[in-house]
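User: What would this chain look like folded?
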Amino acid sequence: MLDLIKKSIYLGMGAATVTKEKIDSLVDELIEKGQLKKEEKPKVVKDLMDKIEKEEKELNDKIKSEIQKTIEELGLATKKDIDELNKKLKNLEKMLSKKES
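Assistant: Here's the prediction, encoded as structure tokens.
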């Protein structure tokens, strides 16, 4: 039963675009078909929303990790690197302006 909902979610919409309303609708369909008891709805909806949220977070973490790894492999400057260089540049400018005075 839950597998049917999961498949519908993943195939029909993709995990990242699932809304609570869509899950409610899918669960209501299962109730109408007699595959789920009405009393089970709140728990099933909550369990699915929790699972989707967890999987979305895991996917976001993996994407961030892969992007960071690629940036490092390519030797690209990060925002942190650029901020540090800007700070050093400002310090050098201050030192130069003091020497010129």
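The chain has one domain: 2-74. If you want, I can go into more detail on any region.
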